[in-house]
Each structure stands twice: as structure tokens, then as C-alpha cells.
Amino acid sequence: MITATVDESSPVPPFEQLRSQLAGAIRSGALAPSTRLPTVRQLAGDLGIAPNTVARAYKALEGENLVRARGRRGTVVTDVAALPTGRRQALVADAVRRYLAEVERLGVTTEEAIEMARAAAR
Amino acid sequence: MGDVVQAIVVLVVAAFVMGLGSRPVGRRQIEHFGARFGVVVSGEDGSFVAARLHRSRVLRSSAVALGIVVGGLPAYMNLIDPGRAGDFAVEPLGYAWLFGAVLAAVAAEILVVQRPVRGGEAALVERRPEHYVSSRWVRTAAVPAGAALLLFGVAVVSTDAELLGPSTGATGALVTLWAVTAGLRRIAERPRLEVAGRLEGLDDALRAHGAHHVVGAAVMLGAMSLLLTAAPVLNEAAPALNLVTGLLAYAALGIWYALARNVPWRARAPEGSTT
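C-alpha cells for the assembled complex are given below, as produced in the milestone run.
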């Protein structure tokens, strides 16, 4: 069973602790695409934190396209394969831009970064 | 004098209902609870379960008793309708005991203050009402309630005033729908006792127990709401059908009893679910 924990004594805010754990579980595939996440109230109650904290973490994950809110029908892990091609390409382009921005910050040129990506994929 | 005797009878019935509900929860009931929901209740946890079952039962029986007094006393004492003094079901108060049963079944679950044993940890799995009570029973409560609202709506827009019964049926339908949506959601969403361990099974069993009580009472109220709303229409179309609908009320009473007390349910922690 996949669980999330919140350490109140940690300097990392509870919202960020939750967001990073959920993001990790989704990216690693531990939480499969289309999996329904607990409702905000349920998760907040189980963790003993404010519902707003959970809602904020879900909102941030939605911003990263990792989950999709469906109103009263809850929040589900985004099934990227089921997205329309255009939307999927937009997500990939967004990920590439973030990657390039990060490597630029680290002092690596775009060409070098592409070469490094190729090498990593081999 | 007769009125006073009748009033005393109503009070005695109400006191009897309260007395039944206030009895302590014994070992046999705990064993029945464990067998019904497929959990082992050890001696250590027995008193915890007994306290929870007792508390919810006292709430439910108190509300039913209050409903009997509210509904029965004025009717029997000729305060409402002297022509129907002996009719227990003088609307709308006559159905107060039934409203009380549903509202208290939900209240008993809402008022549970449950803090996780090990705080700060949660399973990333959505708990849903269907994990604790069959969707078939939820539909059994919701469909008649929806039909009652539909009938009430038709009667409201029709020009035939005789089709429009008292609004008790529509109110009952709304309470029924609220119970099987918000009430059941509250049961599923309340904090877990423990993510994994001894109390996990008990936690699910207590949720299932509460859900069956809520849905059982809602089935009864939903059916009664439909019968109340349909009565004017049936009277106009085929009075003989009233006998059938009357029998349906008894069937609904039986379902209520079975769901609240006997229908088994294997409550287990929900697995990760996908859409």
C-alpha cells in the first residue's frame, strides 16, 4: 500500500512534503495512471492536517500535469497516454523547456544538454 | 381521560424504544458484529467497539423515541386533528420518528471524533461508500426518493390540486438523498484509526456498520416518501393499489431491519482504484 506521511517537525512545509511524495509516487509509476487519489477531506483527516494544505498540494500537482481534478468526482492521476497528441506534445515541450532552463542555470549550453540527454537515453 | 391514557401509551412506547437502545452492548453482540463484518474483535478492542456501538445506538433510539413523542403525542391528544385522533400518521409530525431514525443514523457517524492512532501517515487510496455498503442498497433508497421528488414536481406543475399531497414526502425524499450521499461520504472520509495493523479491520467494520444503518433507515424513509407522494395519484387512478403500496411499506421496514442488523458485509481496506 502506498502511503504518504507528514512530519510536523520538519522545516519543509506540510504542503511541500505531500506534493513531493505524491509527485514521486506518480513519476515512479507506484501510483498508476487513472488512479483515484483520496479526497481532500479524507487525506487531510488521515494526516491530521488542514484540508487547505491537501488542496494546495493537489493544485500544485495539477499545475505539473501529474493529476487531473474532475470536480466532485475527485482527483485522478493523469493518464498521459490517453491525452490527445497535441496536448501530449505540449506537455513534452513544457518538460523540455524546464530541462533546458535548469541546465542553463547550471552553466551548460543547449547543445551540450541535448548531447547529455542522448547519452543518458542510450 | 382517554386522551391522557393514550398520551401515556405514547410515552411508554417512546420510553421502551429508548430503553432498548440504552442497553449495554454485550459480548454476544460484539461476536455478532465480528461475524457479520468478518473481523476478529479481541478482548482488548471489545470495549472500544462496544462503546462505539452503544453510543451510536443511543443516539438512534433517542431520535426515534423523540420522533414518536413529537409525532404521537399531539395526534393522540387530539391537538392536531380531532377526526384522526387515533391515526398515528398525522402528517407531517406522524413521520417524525422515521426522520429521526435517518437523521440520527447520520448524526451518529458525523459526531464520531476519530483521531488516527498513528498520526501523520495516510494510505493514498480513496475510500468510497461502496466499500462499506452495497451500491444496490444505496440505489434501493435513492430511486424511490428520486421518484418521489419527480412525482412531487409533476404535481406542483399540474393544475390538479388533488394530486398534490402534503410536502412530507418530498421532504423525506430530500433527507433520504442527503443521507445516502453526504452521510455515506462522511463515513468514508472520516480519519482512519490506523493505516495498517490491528485496528484497520475494525475501523472498516465500524464504517460498514454505520453505513448499513444509514442506508437501512434511508430505504425506509425513501419508500415512505414515495408512498406519501404517490398516494393522491393512486387514490385517483386505482384505489386498490393503495393496498399494494401499503404492503411495500412493510417490505421496506423489513429491509431496514435486515440492513441495520443482519446483512453481512466483508469490509476490507479498499485497494487502489482507477476510473
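The CA atoms of residues 13 and 26 of chain A lie 20 Å apart. Helices of chain A lie at 14-28, 40-47, 51-63, 85-105, 110-121. Further analysis is deferred to the final report.
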